[in-house]
Amino acid sequence: MSDRQSRAQRMAKPALACVKSAAASNLAKDYKPRAMAFPTMVLQSGLAQAVGFLAAKSGKDGKGKAYQQYFDDLAKVAGLPNSEALLQDALRADLPRYRLLTRDVLDAASWLKRFCQSLINDEGSRNGD
Question: Which segments of 1-129 does DSSP mark as H helices, in order?
Answer without folding.
Answer: 7-24, 28-45, 47-57, 62-78, 83-92, 95-119
